Fold this sequence. Notes:
The chain has one domain. The chain is built from four helices and nine strands; from the N terminus they run ααβββααββββββ. The protein has helices spanning 3-17, 28-31, 72-81, 93-96, and strands at residues 40-49, 57-58, 65-69, 100-102, 109-115, 118-136, 139-159, 165-173, 189-195. It is globular, with a radius of gyration of 19 Å. The protein starts with a helix and ends with a strand. 25% of the residues are buried. This is Lipoprotein.
Amino acid sequence: MTALKIILLTLCVFLVSCGPKIHEVFSPAEVQWSLEKGATTLILHGQARNSLYPGGRDCESAHDGMIFPDTKYFDAWYRVQTSGSHFAEDISSDARQYIRHASAEPGCIYTFRNVPAGNWRILLDISWYTSGVAGTGPYYGHSRHVPAGPGITSGRIHIDGTETVIRKNFISDEGLTTNSDHPFRMPRHQAVLEPWAVP
Length: 199
């Protein structure tokens, strides 16, 4: 092995070991309640609201939405994953089973069924596609599918178990955006949940 390969391997190990860590201990007993079959269906309508779209704009994301117990461990995982580092620590295999997923439906709708009572954290990708320049490396060109919008947005909700259906507008509001843990990384987008009356 050449000296250059040794240096590169050492640098790689160093970067991985120095990446952001989850400094909380996962406790299955703390979140066991979230695996129960609840009586509530949570329906979220994702939108962005800013100076360009004061009335709100629906997202066009193809990514799944997620909800998971609102605990210190999951909050630390969210902060690590939104740190902007390519070497961030991933969620533990034990904790992964407590994340619930919902596919994006037309109109930026996400439906989570059988949700039990408790405090939940929500992550939705509030993005849409526009025309612009996109590509990788030396290959750039015009595309009609350039991602735009706030991106990953976080919100919180308490479900008490008394309602069978909860409908909320999940709005990424630029007035609630907070900075990340690093000055050169993307900000963390926060959502406000408002009542949603289906048209």
